[in-house]
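Table S2 (text version). Query chain:
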Amino acid sequence: MAITYKEIDTELLENITVKYGEWAKKHIHIGSDSFSLAAIFDDIPVGFISTYIRNLDEPLAEEKDAYIDVIEVDKEFRRKGIAAELISRTEVWAKEEGLLQIRAWSNQSKVGAIKMWRSLGYGLCPAKIWIEWCHEIVDGYYVVKQLNPKNPYPEITKLIKKDLRSVTSKPIGDFRLTRAKSGVYVYKCLYDGSPAVVKYFENESDRREILNYRILTRHNIPTIDVLALGTATLVMEDISASDDWRLGVEDDFYDVDVTKCLAKWYFTFHENGTSVSELDSLFFEYDSLTKENFIILKEKFPEAGELFDFVLAHYDKLRKLLYKPAFTLVYNDFHWSNFVVRKDKTSAMMIDFNLMGKGYRYSDFQNVCGSLSEEAKSAFIHEYERLYKEKHGHSRSNDELTEKQIANVAGKLYELVVAFLERDTFPEWAEAVRNEAQDGSLLAETKKLLSE
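Corresponding structure-token output:
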């Protein structure tokens, strides 16, 4: 029997949905920080697995693991090693992501799978969980397997110590890897005897985060305490050990008090960011909107050829417009896992500044408000506008309109560049803009912007 294995893309996802139903689609992840694989026989999916990276619950909310959301094999194809192969390949991916463990939960009705899990080296534990869609507690069991040893990269921890010798005499040790991906290594550790988090950047381009933290400190923009900065190493306080702060959680997207605090942080970030001397040299998303990239996009995405032809014909005007608004610092990577909140909800601030750069305030508004509930979004905007009027005596309405008109086109073009040119598989988050590029609506928006 010739079984092949293929990562699930949007086309294969639709085939799986047709065969297995909408329930399967709800549990298959094809965006970033996920891995989904199908077993194929005679061009037909006969099994699949989908896993994503998620944070553990408190008090381990800073820890991440690989969580198998679904694994399914057709009845007539069971006991042929397919499930084991799907799991084995998923473990390889999880190890490459630098994750410490892989985990799954199974309904108690699937006790037949227990033998397989044990044979693959998984530990088991009975567990009841709340199933939201049916509003009931269900009996079952967790399975878990450790993937990486405590310090699988001893050469990296040696480099960390060497890098820090020139900037501090304080000891650092007791490293425990929490993430390793694309040359960025994140450890929990003890720094001068206290809990800390250390990042090591193997690649020169990723070391911009060290510069970004220096910029934040110089311009009085609040963030978590930075304990040491080397050439390639960043040591920060461990928020999970803080008495005053906690990590953000998804429920914060619905919390008006938290979003008001975030608005205050963004206002300070943007106001102080206008005076950053290094602003011109910082990362600017729209720098990737080059003629060369549009030509490649046209080859990779010929269905939107008319759009790219129009952009290329009006390219000089596009570049001029991109530099029309006033620049400031922009965060670019808003997510609940990227901010911290005081436990009394009197303050909040962003962390993880690897994608910080220059841009428009509106781009950050768009990035933030797209994740918030309507009530939280309204609170964020109202608080930001209140602070702006209080300082400047007028609103940002005219500036914001200009930024919005440009960003609504340039932002979508940037999404296409990232999705087609910087990703191995087409990301789920770019489906909407791909549809707009295909149906002509993005072309209409672009013509309106560039023809005025």
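Notes on Table S2: The chain has a mean pLDDT of 91. The longest strand covers residues 44-55.
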